[in-house]
Design goal:
Elements (H helix, E strand, L loop, with lengths): L2 H8 L2 H19 L6 H26 L9 H18 L4 H25 L4 H20 L4 E2 L6 H5 L1 E2 L2 E2 H20 L1 H11 L1 H6 L4 H27 L1 E2 L7 H11 L11 H20 L6 H38 L1
Antiparallel strand pairs: 1-4, 2-3
């Protein structure tokens, strides 16, 4: 393969992420021999289901541009989980009906974020940081910091059981939602509108796209995914905690950026985000499996994020440089 072909291949975000995934597996298996097995890798997906759901929501918000970001996604999950716990444990409501109400509640919280950002034109960073504080305070006020426990044992089926060795929250929740979202983003008018809105909002407006509506819908979808993730977390932990979503806001941003989502909007694929979730989940799980201090999880993630983005930028720069040299050669030969 020619040098230019190699560079072109490596500038492909998916290829770069697959190489990082392979490297992560090799390193983790070296630190914890026996970690890389079918059973362990399928088990890893159990821990990645929640971050995948939240990462999809964060990515869609970021792709739509306008400085889109959601710093409240973790606290939406926490507050939604608290509501779910109250409905199921304290009022004895059927989990299915409770889940429907919680999802509607999560979408309402997402709509509030979308209203602040799209209608009132508040900077997304400030708006969602503010609502993050609000949702977090409300969760702590309602619970007094005490977890809500007492879910029926049968509810653990979703978060702790497997079907054909595949965790149920992956097989019956994360995977179906991922498939539907991938189709919607890649093969529908809605998906095209998201990318056009993110890449050039003015052009989108001239094309007849309601930019404010698109961005508001994305925040609603973000809230929907956060509330679904909260139900999965409740089943996984069998408790509803006010801090259950703590740290997921920054982690989802890291996963989105690592997956190739342009923080300025208009570019990036969810397929890259999926691989990024696998990388981060394998690293965090592998570090625990190797009995290493958990503080290294975020440090390693930060290093990988910097290296991957830097490497990708260098390769893109080199690719553009080669392209300019070819253009000069063509001009000189005319």
């Amino acid at each position: 393969m020619k040098k230019d072909g190699i560079i072109k291949l490596l500038t492909n975000r998916t290829v770069l992420l697959l190489l990082l995934l392979a490297a992560s597996l090799i390193v983790i298996n070296f630190l914890a021999p026996g970690f890389v097995s079918v059973t362990n890798l399928l088990g890893v997906t159990q821990f990645g289901a929640v971050i995948l759901l939240l990462g999809i929501g964060q990515s869609i918000v970021m792709v739509s541009g306008g400085g889109g970001i959601d710093l409240s996604i973790g606290t939406i999950a926490s507050l939604s989980g608290i509501l779910f716990g109250i409905l199921c444990v304290q009022t004895g409501m059927n989990p299915l009906f409770a889940a429907m109400l919680v999802i509607a509640f999560g979408m309402l919280l997402g709509f509030f974020n979308g209203f602040l950002v799209s209608v009132l034109n508040l900077p997304a960073f400030i708006a969602t940081l503010s609502t993050s504080y609000m949702y977090s305070s409300l969760s702590l006020y309602i619970t007094g910091g005490v977890p809500i426990s007492g879910f029926e044992k049968s509810f653990a089926w979703l978060g702790q059981k497997t079907t054909f060795l595949i965790p149920n929250q992956v097989l019956f929740v994360a995977a179906p939602i991922l498939i539907i979202t991938l189709y919607a983003v890649n093969h529908t008018k809605y998906g095209r509108h998201i990318y056009l809105t993110g890449s050039n909002a003015n052009a989108a407006i001239f094309a007849g796209i309601d930019v404010k509506k698109i961005r508001c819908i994305n925040y609603i979808l973000d809230g929907f995914l956060a509330s679904v993730a909260s139900i999965v977390m409740c089943s996984w932990l069998m408790t509803a905690r006010a801090d259950a979503g703590s740290g997921y806001d920054l982690q989802t941003i890291a996963v989105a950026v690592l997956g190739g989502i342009d923080i300025n909007g208009g570019a990036g694929k969810l397929s890259g985000v999926i691989i990024a979730v696998l990388i981060t989940t394998i690293i965090s799980t592998g570090i625990q499996y190797a009995n290493l201090n958990g503080i290294w999880q975020l440090a390693v993630l930060g290093i990988i994020l910097i290296l991957s983005v830097s490497m990708n930028q260098v390769l893109i720069y080199h690719s553009k440089k080669v392209s300019k040299q070819k253009q000069k050669e063509i001009i000189n030969n005319i």
